[in-house]
Amino acid sequence: MSNSRRFLVTRLGFAKLKEKYHGLREHRISIIKEVEIAVAQGDLSENAEYHSAKEILEKLNVQLSELTPIIEHFQIGPVPQDQSVVRFGAHVKVRATANDQTSLLIVANPIERMIDDRVQGFDSPMGRAMLGKKAGECFTVGADHQFVVESIDYPES
User: Fold this and answer.
1) Alpha-carbon span 93 to 40, nearest angstrom
2) pLDDT profile of the chain (157 residues), mean per 10
């Protein structure tokens, strides 16, 4: 298995993804039971419970197919020695220069956005623009969206 792809995730992100994965699996088992009960009732063409359960099951299967490789082949990202620079796993407070609005963002694997909407994938335009920056430095996303790094924190260190 040394040739398998590894998925870099944060320690906290992995714990939450694993919890979500197990919750989805448990929910899937209960939905399968609902489908079996509906099938036992006979005519499925007008059975709303059956069709609803099948739709939910399809969505669960998609989510599980996204999470399974990560759960099976994860690697916790390293905590950088120099924590004054934005790297993988950083919690970054940024300020938009256009309106002075601040946001707390997390540079992590894009899949972690499934459990925390503050996540900016390290390969996203915003994530790439933040990497390597220090507090007080400016960066631009797209043609004209400018931000300032207000602070950097590594809560997993």
Assistant:
1) 55
2) 73 93 96 87 77 92 93 90 95 96 95 92 94 97 94 87
